Structure prediction request, 662 residues.
Amino acid sequence: MPLRVLSSLKSRLALAGALLIAASVLIGATGALNLVDLHINDALLDSEAAQARTLARVASNRLVARQAILRRLSQDLPPLAERATVLDWLRGKTVLLSSFDSLFVTTPSGESVALANADGVRANSMSLADRPYFQRTLQQRTPQISDPVASRVTGHPTIIFTQPVLAADGTLRAVLGASLRLSSRDLLVDLTDDDRSDESGHVTAIIDREGRLIAHADPALILQPAERDPHLAVAIATWRANGSPFAIQGQSWRSDGHYVGLAGIQAADWFVVRAIDEERVLGGVALARRRAIALMLATALLGGAALWAATYWLMRPFDRLKRRAAAMSVLDGEGADEPWPSGRGEIGSLAAVLREVEQRNRASVQERAQLLRQMHSVLEHAAVGLLVTIDRKMVLVSGALCRLFGYEEDELTGQPARLLFASDEVYAALGPQVAQAFADHGQFDGELPFVKRDGSLMWGRLVGRPVAPHNPAAGTIWVIDDVSVLREQRERLEWASTHDSLTGLANRAAFERALDRQLADRSAASGRPFCVMALDLDYFKAVNDRGGHAAGDALLQDLSSLMAKRLRRSDMLARLGGDEFGALLVNCDEPTALKVAESMREQVAQYHLRWQGEDYGVGISIGVVEVDARYANRAAAMAAADEACYDAKGAGRNQVRPAARA
Prediction:
């Protein structure tokens, strides 16, 4: 019976309306509660950051105030050579022991001159030269606050303030210092011991850059890692993972059930960190939220049920339209030719509307079917890969495209277009390029790397044009063609046009273009030196005569590899023809080039090719020229290098000669 009731149109409409009302109430109320939660969360985060920032400012002001006391105190420090005077002077300052545990005066070398503490004023011979804070004071000539250290006198965790005392000529004549226990209540302790309680769920602490506790409600944890406090463990780990930022203005976040606030103490490399237990703070809010949701759910269900019942009652007259409306849904099915019922009021109006809808629907279906048949026919018989994308998703793909990439049609349809591209970087860079090309030319045309289903890479030519230029939502139609072979052939041709096929070195044309560029750069830039070498193998013809051209070719290959290893990646070695070579050394003066040439000559002279039971070796003559303003063009530079090479051959071969200077 329940299923039969729900099978009627009026039942479904009534139920849908009831559920819509109920869902609207629940969604709206839940959204409001979530918004309240969000505001509470933001308020707590802002509060924790503000509290941490306020405490950090208080701590910083206290440190700065003590530094200011030392600075004023240092202004009338007598010369250290007068030890008795220094002791008398220090006795007159013992009132300051209310701000510090001890005062001391040291020489620039770190030797203590006098010490004042609760036991009185006395001479002292303790050395502070090895203390890091003292060394920073000497190097920077600025006041310093030490990291917490164990006092050499009392053993208590203590910080040291230092104030360099400068002479009139700016030299350091003394260092005035003071110590203060971390447990001093007017320093940091009172900032951390008044809000740690099981009821509040608050923890406040002060840590240094290493994460050690400097101030904490539990004195036993002082100078221990802050992770020892379980309320702070995850917060400190998060802070470390973010690079231990020094946030003077304060920052806050949620971490493992705690709201955490942190702020840097500007006067020292320390931090105030606060953590508040989320459950303690929001427990009542969560309970109220659950009760509110339960109440809203009950209200929504009751209201939905009432709406369902009313709609069900009012929709009964429309049963007469049920049979004809069912026939309309199948267009050409049983009952489709039955006339629509006539009448006045809502029934007649609804019948007229449904009749018009049926006619339009029938025409639209026929039009869409014809369009889809035409589109599928075009895509199926297209010889190239065709693709239509909307919002970067593939909505239509041709059979040729599926075969090209190795997918079935249903594996591509509806998927992001990124699936076909070789990398995220390639796909991300394509968007701006396409937008610019569409704006300038109305279409995009470029070669990009793609990836097939089997993971193999493919270079493809991608041509795209918007379906409707003024309506981006209409999508884009793309043509993809595999140009991997053409690209490989083009790259081989480009390589062959600039390289020697035997040795793999640059050829004469590439060498001359590089030399021309270097000459142009020298003219346009600051005239940085560069050198050109002319290299000619000695007695190479004898290798060809004795071992044949195969031996000569093998020797050329080996020597080319050896000589290239003597040059930098920014330099160029080229085979100019036969046994002649050229070298271009950028940012290189003549003395350096001569050393490089000599190392190449030695390498060539020492090498012997073992070929068919015989050893073959050659020498090499090298001419070096530093190209400066005397050489206006490539021909002049090469002529000078060739002439120096001839001089090397004339002097007995297997030598290096610089170009003669005019």
Remarks:
- The radius of gyration is 44 Å.
- The chain is about 45% helix and 20% strand.
- The first strand starts at residue 102 and ends at 106.
